[in-house]
């Protein structure tokens, strides 16, 4: 399975592959911004969280499956609700793990719910695999993840032992990893900018200088947007996409800060707590992008006080793609629109409560009123 994961990283998450999907991202984000323009003309409040979640689902489906799917294609509850169900099931402690004799009784109904949810996704992925087999891509067309997996499955001597079950499992991982995490990070970033008008104005001023007021942001602009990059870093410090990193296992007996940890212990790293540690960060709970002006702290986990994407070989393979999407969408939203809260709500009154789970989405959707600011 590790070899298959390496193949996915090479074929879908490499810089070359990420760049190949640039036209798709530009198209989808353009449609996304148009939907806000319509609301701006009407002076209407918009559920920003819901629209960001839909954008994330559309882009993820196009990268993994080659086309968009409607919510009803998966289940009547839709993509976001189904993935939230999976996240909730994975995060809920199972009493049977602590009292093994109760495991078979399924007192919490977790096994039943997991099987039901699993069948929904299994049927969906079976349909998609069949569609790809019966309608293969022509030479020169951009291949999605399922195309790549099918090529590897049908090739001998590659060293990859790929079966249909592997394709379904990896497709699920890629969807879950890209949909929930990116949309949550965008949501938090925009909410923090609305809460901090000074920071919002500073980002918009940078965008006016680099991009101008006659056009939307292009991905090629992102490297020149230094303050925007600080905003995204600060957002991921406070709200890492995965507050608890993927579990690790200790390879040998060791002692850490006076605590004895035996070999083969399961180790869970709390990235959320590390990002808010007052021993590492001044005013740790405050949103201060300027803290990144000095120093070379980046997303790659070289500095252990900032490990939003993990570190080393076990770091998140989708980091580059995720950061690109978050920066691009946040830049468009704050460049194209000014934002205010409905019903006279003050920025300081915005609810910033987190929802419990493997990811940390907002407990309450972000609803705001956009005003178009680019020159027509």
Automatic annotation (TrEMBL):
Molecular function terms from GO: heme binding; iron ion binding; oxidoreductase activity, acting on paired donors, with incorporation or reduction of molecular oxygen, NAD(P)H as one donor, and incorporation of one atom of oxygen
Keyword entries, A-Z: Heme, Iron, Membrane, Metal-binding, Monooxygenase, Oxidoreductase
Gene3D superfamilies, A to Z: Cytochrome P450 (1.10.630.10)
Cofactor dependence: heme
Domain of life: Eukaryota
Pfam families in alphabetical order: p450
Binding site for heme: 316
Subcellular location: Membrane
Single GO cellular component term: membrane
Family classification: Belongs to the cytochrome P450 family.
Protein name: Cytochrome P450 CYP736A12
Species for this entry: Vitis vinifera (Grape)
């Amino acid at each position: 399975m590790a070899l298959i994961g390496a193949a996915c990283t090479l074929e879908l998450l490499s810089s070359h592959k990420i760049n190949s999907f640039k036209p798709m991202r530009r198209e989808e984000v353009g449609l996304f911004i148009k939907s806000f323009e319509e609301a701006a003309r009407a002076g209407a409040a918009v559920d920003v969280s819901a629209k960001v979640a839909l954008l994330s689902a559309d882009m993820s489906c196009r990268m993994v499956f080659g086309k968009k799917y409607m919510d009803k294609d998966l289940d009547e509850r839709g993509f976001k609700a189904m993935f939230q169900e999976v996240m909730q099931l994975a995060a809920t402690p199972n009493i049977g793990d602590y009292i093994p004799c109760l495991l078979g009784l399924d007192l919490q109904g977790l096994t039943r719910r997991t099987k039901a949810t699993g069948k929904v996704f299994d049927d969906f992925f079976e349909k998609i695999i069949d569609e790809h087999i019966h309608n293969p891509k022509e030479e020169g067309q951009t291949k999605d993840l399922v195309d790549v997996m099918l090529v590897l499955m049908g090739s001998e001597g590659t060293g990859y032992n790929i079966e249909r079950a592997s394709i379904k499992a990896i497709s699920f991982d890629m969807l879950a990893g890209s949909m929930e995490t990116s949309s949550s990070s965008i949501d938090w970033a925009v909410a923090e900018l609305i809460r901090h008008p000074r920071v919002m104005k500073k980002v918009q001023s940078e965008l006016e200088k680099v991009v101008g007021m006659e056009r939307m942001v292009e991905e090629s602009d992102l490297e020149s947007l230094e303050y925007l990059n600080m905003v995204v870093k600060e957002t991921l410090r406070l709200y890492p996409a995965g507050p608890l990193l993927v579990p690790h296992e200790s390879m040998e007996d060791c002692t850490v800060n006076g605590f004895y940890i035996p070999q083969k212990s399961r180790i869970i790293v709390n990235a959320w707590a590390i990002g808010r540690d007052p021993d590492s960060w001044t005013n740790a709970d405050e949103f201060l992008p300027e803290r990144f002006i000095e120093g070379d702290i980046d997303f790659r986990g070289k500095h252990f006080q900032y490990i939003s994407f993990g570190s080393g070989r076990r770091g998140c393979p989708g980091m580059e793609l995720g950061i690109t999407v978050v920066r691009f969408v946040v830049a468009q939203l704050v460049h194209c629109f000014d934002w205010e809260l409905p019903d006279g709500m003050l920025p300081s009154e915005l609810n910033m409560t987190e929802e419990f789970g493997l990811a940390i989405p907002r407990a309450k959707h972000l609803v705001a009123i956009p005003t178009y600011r680019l020159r027509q």
